[in-house]
Amino acid sequence: MATTDPNLARQFLHSFSRTLEGAEAATRGLRDQGDVRSKIDACRQGLALIREKAERRSTGASSGLESLAAPASASPPPTRDAHDDVVGDAEKGLSRLLAEGESARLSRAEAFGLEVVLLTDGSRPSLFVQNDSIDFAERWNAATAGNWRTRLQARLPRIRDALRSVGRVDLVDGSQRNAIGTAFLIAPNRVLTNKHVLQDIAFRDGGQWRFIGRIEVEFAGELDVRRERLCLVTGVHFASRDAISEDIELAKMDVAILDIAPAGSDPLPPPLSILADDTELVRGAETYLVGYPAVADDALSSEDVRRTFGTAIYGRKRLSPGTVIDGPLTFEDGNTPNRVFTHDCSTLGGSSGSCVLDLFEGGRYAVGLHFGGLKEAGANYAHALQRLRDPLEAAGATYATPRG
């Protein structure tokens, strides 16, 4: 069955341009069957690494300090047969794009296969964070970073500072941790996340928010790294008035600010600075997303995600570079002033509350709060933080203007 959004092929071609000759090739997308072959080879290699990592995690060969509870929809490690199916669908999708260009109408399976290619061929990778940094010698990162490696390495000192300030929101039940979403520090003792993340961990009672259990923010949560950096969520400083449903409603503000306190003797990481002027947040602007991807049960491709990636390597801190599709000044989001922009950073099924940061100002400024995506449209959605200035400044956030 064909996808319902005719713009999906154009979005894939735009994203694939990264691995050809850099940004200059943005209008060409795919050149020939040689490009198709190289992308399929990269896809096979990447999927083999995924199988290896998932198998090691599921057998306990690589352990961490924490124990993430298996979700109700937990799946076994992916199989070679499942990966062969994905590769076949990806090859069909690439061939269709090459033959038909932006007019191609992709099947759901072909579209998912192309998403996996984007993750593995260097177009839109999702890199593991370890020890508040990106180790480009780590096998997955080395195989999938592509041309982004040079850009990220040039900004790595500032990126490292930003990575420390993004954490995972956990519901803690004894020794088990259930990953709910992502949050990031915007002020001393305050983190920003989505309203729908808050709705998953708390309920309204007599005008007050009450948590359903012990809620913590883990600022480590990295794959194969044995350490913790925990904070306790102590209250709700702000929550937007809109009730957020499972449907993406762009006119609604999906924003919550939580109060936190250190759970141990270690101090909190520093809060992120927010870019005061978002006029450069336009189509093609390079960004990166930091968060803890999870398999979203309501995602269009959730079953495909489980079958392809398993669940053992989810809930770990990732960095995903990409570009803006439409900035807040040009994207029609159903409200005035517009506060939503779209991006194509890989989110791996669900990255609610993740922080979108700039790569066009050196990699140090927060520019967006990711809140959802529509796979059939090939787009992810984020609130532009400059457009949330009133509640964020009231919470103590700092807006900064780069020098020179």
TrEMBL record:
Region (Disordered) residue ranges read: 58-86
Q: Which SUPFAM superfamilies match?
A: Trypsin-like serine proteases
InterPro entries hit by this protein: Peptidase_S1_PA, Peptidase_S1_PA_chymotrypsin
In this chain, composition skew of type Low complexity spans 59-73
- Origin: domain of life: Bacteria
- Any Pfam family matching the protein: Trypsin_2
Listed name of the protein: Trypsin-like peptidase domain-containing protein
